[in-house]
Amino acid sequence: MLGRQSQQKVRKGTKSCTECSLQQPQRLPSRYRISQLESKVANLTKFIHDVEAKFGNQPAQTSGSTAGRGLESDDLGDDSSGSDIDASHQPAHIRSLFQNDWLSVDAHRQLDQPQDRRVKVPTHLFNLARQALQKLIPPKDEVLGIVRSASEWLPILHNLFPQPGAATCQQELFERFDEMCSPDVDAISLATWLLTVALTGQQSPQEDISPHVQHRRSQEWSKFCRAVSNAVENNIMSHDRLVGTIPGLGMAMHFCRLQISQGNFQKVWVRLRHTIAIAEVMGLHKAWQSTQTSRTAGAESYETQLHKAQLWESLTAANGLLGMIINLPPETRRYPQDKTQALVVEGVVQPRVYLSKLTDIVAKIQHLEDLNMTPESKPEFYSSTFGLIGELKALMSQTPKSWWTSERDRIKPDHIVQFIHNSIMVRAHLPFVMKHDLGEECFYSRLACMDACESVTELYQFLRGTLPPGIFMTRPVDLLVFIATVVLLLITYSSSPTNRFNTYVNKAKTDSIVKQVTEIMTRRSNDLTSAGFTENCVTTINSLHKLLQQDNTPRFQDLVLKVPLLGKVHVRRNVRPADVSGANTLSRKQAEPETHRAGEQSNSQRGQQVFNTNPSTMGSSQTPRDWQWDSLTWTVEETHENFFQDALMAEVFDPFAMWPEMYEQPFNS
After folding, report:
1. Helix axes 265-281, 246-261, angle to 10 degrees
2. Looking at the domain assignment, is residue 612 inside a domain?
3. How many angstroms separate the CA atoms of 604 and 628, rounded?
4. 287 found inside a domain
5. Is residue 643 a contact partner of residue 325, using CB atoms and an 8 Å limit?
6. Which of 10, 271, 298, 446 sits 20 to 30 Å CA-CA off 250?
7. What is the pTM of this model?
8. CA-based angle 149:416:423, to the nearest 5?
9. DSSP code of 152?
10. What percent of the chain is modeled with pLDDT above 70?
11. What domain count does the chain have?
12. Binning pLDDT at 50, 70 and 90, where does residue 314 land?
């Protein structure tokens, strides 16, 4: 007895007695204890209700559980911005995985609460988003002016990238103005409307106003576009439960288009990947299969599945094209495309179907990039490249020849698809064009690549002169034609008089094409979405063109360009044969650039692979006597760097810091 009393004495400096310390009682977490209590209360409440019902009394309604659910919903309002996508839009296997009785202590509470949360939490987020977005609605007369002045770009966009619930014409923007100002407007619809207004306002013509007023309006609209972008990103894009609907996914695509117009390609890539992940959870990648089975299930069910299939197709096309632009593999390449759609219907080519097939082909380019990085996979790389070129030619052969040569009186989606097709063809032939081998395979690829480059530049002149000046796709289009123009110049001027390829080269035609491209780039250099990008492209093209044209040069000249898809291009105009006798009289100043070239060449040989049009220029010990046989040489230093990031994602783009690294001679003549 005395021993037990001594054990129960409280130990000094502790909150437990000696007996408790010896027994080490188990401590249960508070969450577990609360859940057990709630379960017991729920069981007791159910038992009381059953007893009351047995004796014919009306069961009493308790307010405890209701208050608890309301409190929990309120507490979860701010924390629901993660990946808690509305379960009503999830496929059945996802719902069965995350919503079942095994994951809850109380089955009755688990069945009641999710629906309450799905209703209450998005409502709270929708209200916050609506309040933030309605503050950005422009005045009604300003929206009317935008609608009247902007060109019809929405029908073209809707034809290529169907977006359920979005405006299909400019007039619809003005007609929905009052609806957007109402206190109960849907936040997703409001965000889509504001994004469309921002994209449309960038295309308003400004040729009839002074440069000062034009600059001021451009600055004001740029601020408006950034404000809309920030508000949509902070209030909607950051909440998966709001984006995880069909209208929400369509709104996310519009958000990406606005980022493209501002040059934020890194944000576009990340946001588009995230949007595609949400669409996958919602099961959109299987929607086109459901359209085949829902035809007999009713018109409403088929229409819903068709909208999902069209939206997934738009996401896939956008992902594939953006992956080609920034040289990254598209996320959707592992999903099969719908093969049942007809490419030609009653003699009319369907541009959306053609674009879908194009993106399926372009998704394979990244695999070729991976094969090209290892020497042991070179045979597979070349065979796969020829296979991809064959797929492009087979797709082209399925369309009438008149479709490619039809009159271009007004812009149509067909012209945009043709431009993309030829740009992909240029990229497919680049590995063979960059080689110095003059075999049959490379000879054919040079001819085909030159034709594709000419087609790209020809279509560019029509598109850039017809498309709205500030449309969101201008910067990618400018970049693709810049690459095609540089490749065309290098192919044209790298052929020697003794080379049989020279008989197929028309330098006068190339000079005319370059002049036309640079002229239209100069006219568009002040567009709101260009931001000086085209002006810098013109500077680079003109510098390269002048260097290539200078045959009678007393000493060699050097130019280094960083070109997306190609890499670092070293172009050198060597001494003419007539001047070789005086090569020993070259000054020390004239010989210094060669020393710099030698050091740079040795660095490239240590860690990078160099391709050249002439093997005699591969060494770093080349002397003026060796240059007499090649008045022009150029090499491509393959560094596997992504120069798209430099060209598209820099806030201040400077070609002299990014592309032309140095000019040994100023081009003043």
Report:
1. 170
2. yes
3. 25
4. no
5. no
6. 298
7. 0.74
8. 135
9. S
10. 67
11. 2
12. very high
